[in-house]
From TrEMBL, chain A:
The chain crosses the membrane at residues 20-42, 245-273, 294-319, 339-358, 414-434, 636-659, 680-710, 730-752. Belongs to the ABC-4 integral membrane protein family. It is found in: Cell membrane. Residues 250-366, 639-760 form the ABC3 transporter permease C-terminal domain. InterPro entries: ABC3_permease_C (IPR003838), MacB_PCD (IPR025857), Macrolide_Exporter_MacB (IPR050250). The keyword Membrane applies. This is ABC transporter permease. Keywords: Cell membrane, Membrane, Transmembrane, Transmembrane helix.
Amino acid sequence: MGAVWLASRAAVKRRRLQSVVIGLVVLFSTATFVVALGLLAASSAPFTNAYARGHGAHVVADFDMTAVSGAQLARAAEQPGVEAVAGPFGKAVLTITENKAGFPFGPLTVVGRADPAGPVDRLDLWAGRWATGPGEIVMNRPSGQGLVPRALGDTFQVPGGPLLTIVGFADSVSQSAGAWVSPGQIGALHPSEQQMLYRFKDSSTDAEIRSGLASVTAGLPPGALVESQSYLVLKRAFAAGPGAYVPFLMVFGVLGIVVAVLIVANVVSGAVVTGFRHIGVLKALGFTPNQVAAVYLTMISVPAIAGCALGVVLGNILAKPLLSGAFQGLDVPNAGVGRAVDVTCLLGVPVLVAVAALGPALRARGLSAVEAISAGSTPRAGRALRAQRWLAGTRLPRPISLGLGLPIVRPARVALTMAAIVLGVITVTFATGLTNTMVAYGKAQEANGAVQVTVRAADPGDGQTARRLGDSETEGLLRSLPGAVHVTAGSYADIYLGSSQTTDAEFLRGDSSTLGYLMVKGHWMNGAGQIVARSDFLHQRGLAVGDQTTLDLGGKRTQVRIVGEFLAGGFSVFCDWATLTELAPDQQATDYEIQLAPGTNTDAYIAAFTKAAGTGLNATADTNQTSVGTVVITSFASIFTLMLGLIAAMGVFNTVVLNTRERRRNLGMLKSIGMTPRQVTFMMITSMVPLGVIGGLLGLPVGIIAHRLIVPASARAAGIDMPASMMHVWHAPMLSVLALAGVLIAVLGAFIPARAAARLTVAEVLRSE
Amino acid sequence: MLRCMSTEDDTAGRTVVRLDAVRKEYGATIALDGVSLEIRSGEAVAVMGPSGCGKSTLLNMIAGLDRPTSGTVVVDGEELGRHDEKALARLRRRRIRMIFQFFNLLDDLSVLDNVALAARLIGVPAAQARRRAVELLDELGIADRQSRYPALLSGGERQRVGVARALMNHPVLLLADEPTGALDSKAGEQVMGILMDLHRAGQTVVLVTHDRDLASRHANRLIEVADGRVVGERRLKPTQ
Ligand SMILES: Nc1ncnc2c1ncn2[C@@H]1O[C@H](COP(=O)(O)OP(=O)(O)O)[C@@H](O)[C@H]1O
Ligand SMILES: [Mg+2]
């Protein structure tokens, strides 16, 4: 082992440039892996996972303090269908009248809780500490919001109550409260309600949630339940918002891994291919084949392991803001890379490098000593000479004709360089296309259901205060208030659609066609008996646009036809109101979505409505549509494109360095016969240009084809059909820039080593052989 | 002066190398065409012939660096054809050492490490290997170059490093392929002198050279090769 270590240590130390390049490529590749794997881990059923991790509440229910006691609530919750329960916690609503970073303007729901853990709704206390004493409050904010921790220490004077100071920030997957104080402190805030958090054994449909809630409220006095929130509402909001991006983010993750593997393999085999003479000498000295392979594996592993360790650190630094940005709408607790990802990368990347090195190392092992020495020192002289002579006969300037001849001398090396350039161009092309598709998708997504105000009716079935205004009066009022342009009324229900499985559906009335859901196929509903369905739902059920099927609502049936397929949205199916009228004539709309004229003051509209409508109808401004915008997606795509481009350029750089090292003697001779350094630089760069041109021409179509195949395929894997319009992302100016990317990568990669070669003095070069 | 490197109590005349109808083809090229010869312990054999006649190929066969297409090679009692690559490597470490026209030093290693590496390969502890390497470099007059890297040495100095490396493990057989071919005449004379000192001390040497004068002055047997065949053989002086 002594001799192997001696030889490999010397190679690592003395081939500093090669070691640095291997280290850097592995570093950036590992960082890409970390981000990509972190992304894949977070993207696989992100909502369900986050909810399971945080033991999120399936129902958050508020009860009137005067109508029911805590002991009664606890006893009522002892039901076989209840998996876990927490509470009762006192709940008060404050109205914040000043605007500070920690206390934004508006109503604030405060709950008294002794600690952030517990059987249900485990909070992620990500900044500061828990509120334990008087005057202390912990605010609910998604983790990773950079500015927020500075708001620690902000205070708010409750009128006629205590002065509250922010001591921490926590994140609740169940969105159970806006803030928390200690149970001792809640009394001073005049609580009127108590909060119960339930987890049910059966919780996948609205019906199951409803029956779960009914079981825990069965023995309670009527009117005790003031308000309840099902987690399925949160789940739908996620599906319509950030969840819709998941399949595209996953493509980037997989692409990152593939490119990193290929470039690492390329760089590693380059190190072995250029080491042939060295290998021959080791063999002549008496190194056994296994020892030679060991020298090469060690020589590559040392910088690779260092690069891997640093790459994990860099990846974590990059992943944290990217992931919490991407899943902002979800408030994923601890958004970031898990320890499992770090460990996978720390162990997996060195194995990957070893596997990449193994092929070439085995080749080194198998070469006979004589072959190795001669392969390393004498290029195929005949072919090279013929090529040089032919080029010299052309009218090209001397440095160019010499430069163009270089690649012909070493076909294996040229193949490696070409592979690096082609990979680089494919990556840049594919990433650009994917980014554009995602931007198009993001735009469609933001336009999707773009409403400014939502009105939701309280549910008297859950014991809440009934609405004062009837359905048609509500709609009339909403339309009559100044600023209203479009009003859509809706009512949701679990239906059966030609299957024994329930389906979440909303029946729509009014201006539903203006909600702007992006259609993949067919058209929006325009008559009775028509429904539209979400892309993933159709795939799951094996249905398609044009199909006729039976819709069952509460045992009554009718025939409907699927007339359109939309890309993304909160419900699986939208149905025409006429169908509801047919099956349940008395059903009222419970939800209203209002689109206002540009410039209308949303708050004023809400205030006017609330004043006229009275109790039982809650109007809220719709702001969450923009939470995950194209910005996050674009930044994600840009970071990936940049990192992958960098890795590819380094692959080229490495190959050119190796080329130059080998050509040094020739360069020295050319200089000794009077070539200037500038001409030498020019020659070395020229030698890479044809590779860049060919690489660009090969890589561009492959990148475009990859985009055309992979993007829809991954969308389909997620159960979505891509609308064709989102695939038309190419235009001539962009294509010509991308075609030049190969030349750019090649010239940039060649510049530094070419300059270095040109600067060497003749004597230095000729000696070094 | 250099001490005798062959430590065993050789009976002069023991056969060290025997080639039997060795043939080597590289594709269509026939590099060796049925070569048979014998070299005895203590001999200094010069192999001569025009460029491209197969001299290097012949030495590579003896060193086990390459395998014959047909025929057998026996070195120090071992038939090389029966050995796998690993066993051949072991044989090269200790018993058969070679010196090359273009030195073939490892550029990454200092002069001292280049020489010591040979001993490290047979498991000699680092400190001991370095001690012996310094001794040899000293005897060859380049001890002051020990911490330099090969790229900074003159050709003559590099070849002396090559010789020191070859001698590290007391080889039974020393092969030299045009060791003076890349050197000026003065450096060439010096390297040749070192090899002949070794021969006088009992080292078996096979030397490929172009220089007839050099060969006839130093060798005790001369083998002429042309077109891959042995075409002449002459005994110059008795084996020492
Ligand atoms: N590795 C090889 N591959 C192909 N041909 C070779 C190889 N080594 C030597 N030859 C050919 O074999 C013949 C003998 O070469 P060599 O033994 O090097 O000659 P010498 O050393 O006498 O100049 C030459 O024609 C040479 O071109
Ligand atoms: Mg030769």
